[in-house]
Amino acid sequence: MNIQKTLIDWYIVNKRDLPWRNTTDPYSIWLSEIILQQTQVAQGLPYYTSFVSNYPTIFDLADADESDVLKLWQGLGYYSRARNLHTSAQYIATELNGVFPKTFSEIIKLKGVGDYTASAIASFCYNEKTAVIDGNVYRFLSRFYGIYTPITGGKGFKEFKAIAQNLIETVDPATFNQAIMEFGARQCKPKTPDCTVCPFSSDCVAFQKEEINCLPVKLKALKVKKKFFNYIVILSEDNTTIVEQRQGKGIWQNLYQFPLIETDTAANYETVLKAVKALNYVESETLELSLYNTTDIVHKLSHQHLYTKFWIVTVNGTLPEGVPFNKVPTFPVPILIGNFIENFNF
Questions:
Q1: How far apart are alpha carbons 276 and 279 in whole angstroms?
Q2: Kind and range of the H or E run holding 89
Q3: What is the CATH number that goes with domain 3-214?
Q4: Catalytic residues
């Protein structure tokens, strides 16, 4: 079987019409690939459109405030992608005079760019023969060849990269890379793929052995930590509240939040009241505390689950560092807080 021809023939008939497939502009393709890391196309498409509209060139993105970039990114998660995108845009604009790197070896040096993204850009924009390896490619190759090497390790990556690199078309590597990813995304899907219409079923090892659901092999995931977050939403007489920027490293670095009290277990009224009184924002004798949501809002991240309550603190007087209610929705915040802000209707 000619795997390359079969993939490309399937792709020509079944490919989705996506805006970044109608250009070889490296800025547009880089932007799309960063957005689509850890993100499905349906969710990422409106963000791509917004970024292209707000920042049509790499210079526009480089000149933007990080806070504005994070706000536009809000809801996509994995915010380090946005910070790295902004940092790399500034590097390209200032150090490279706005000229995007043109080879895999140079592209991969950009902050936030790994082997997959560098391979995608190098092949799509410059027709470099470098194979992409993502979840879709792992899935197709592992099933077709019957490979049981775990994909969640360096050994697996090297093995699958070598196979894909051996398969990639010399004449048109861009189309081959698009085809194998699209095939994995739309035909060789993670769950219940329709193998009856698959052009590879007669040669697919996993299909012949009835082991489609066994591949690809992933190592056992790390234990997810449970954390308890208590956000303190302070409401003053002059319609202001407290919003503060997260400091230090972390997935929500430089995003904004209400004052946070983190506890080892679910906090009760007395625990939160004591902690609120220790804050410097309010006079303890003038506050009233109430619980906004009696049931925890569970926000699931890849490595931790956040059991979250929002507590409303009403205070007499004003807040010297207060933010007007109508300004609260303008801050870039984690989607967990963004949903609260929308429902609370400041």
A1: 5
A2: helix 80-95
A3: 1.10.340.30
A4: 33
Residues of the chain with CATH 3.90.79.10: 225-344
| Close Cβ partners of 164 (under 8 Å, ≥ 6 residues apart) | 131, 132, 133, 137, 141, 180
Q: Coil, helix or strand for 47?
A: helix
Q: Dihedral angle at the C-alpha atoms of 48, 49, 55, 58, nearest 10 degrees?
A: 50
Over residues 178-229, the pLDDT tens digits come to 999 999 999 999 999 999 999 999 999 999 999 999 999 998 767 889 999 9
**What is the CATH superfamily name and number for domain 225-344?**
Nucleoside Triphosphate Pyrophosphohydrolase (3.90.79.10)
307 bridge partner residues: 228, 298
Q: Distance between CA 44 and CA 36 in Å, rounded?
A: 6
Separation of alpha carbons 222 and 32, rounded Å: 29
* Ranges in the chain annotated CATH 1.10.340.30: 3-214
pTM: 0.90
Task: State pLDDT tens for residues 85-134.
Answer: 999 999 999 999 999 999 999 999 999 999 999 999 999 999 999 999 99
* The total number of residues written for the chain in this structure: 346
